[in-house]
Specification:
Helix content is 44%, strand content 18%. The protein contains five helices and six strands.
Length: 159
């Protein structure tokens, strides 16, 4: 698959009120991912939604008939090449899981964005072999981002 240009439009929507982000840093993250060796998300605009737990539960129920908490939901783009897809991530899930897995919040949330990117690139995570391939691609991508200083400085506002 041909790599899309770095001029790809990436819209970033933050609906989680406590998340501190720089939309430019999120765009840099995805532009850097476009250079990771291997499959890439299809060409076209990407939409990134950084959501609350209740919002993603509602989305999960409406589109996947499963009203339970989840970390990432990815919607494929269109066949025209104008829209590459949408990645919806739960900020609350990342916050809860970073302590469980011993990662910092910024890395955990970046992992969710990478996971969505990989879904758009054709990775799946249902069968054991597919899960192993997804985890390996996630690790390669996170290493690539770390080496380039492209993990966004995600943090939460003090309440």
């Amino acid at each position: 698959m041909k790599k899309p240009p770095e001029s790809r439009k990436i819209s970033v929507r933050r609906t989680h009120p406590a998340l501190k982000i720089s939309p430019a840093a999120v765009r840099k993250l995805f532009h850097t991912l476009e250079h990771v060796p291997g499959p890439h998300a299809p060409a076209g605009e990407l939409s990134i939604a950084l959501m609350t737990g209740p919002e993603i539960v509602e989305l999960h129920g409406r589109f996947l008939n499963d009203p339970t908490p989840t970390d990432v939901i990815t919607f494929d783009g269109d066949d025209s090449g104008d829209f590459g897809g949408e990645i919806c991530v739960s900020v609350d899930q990342a916050l809860a899981q970073c302590g469980r897995y011993g990662t910092d919040f910024a890395t955990e949330l970046t992992l969710y964005l990478v996971h969505g990117w990989l879904h758009l690139a054709g990775f799946d995570d249902h069968a054991p072999a597919d899960i192993a391939a997804m985890r390996a691609a996630e690790a390669r991508s996170l290493d690539w981002l770390r080496a380039r200083g492209a993990i966004p400085d995600f943090s939460m506002k003090a309440s």
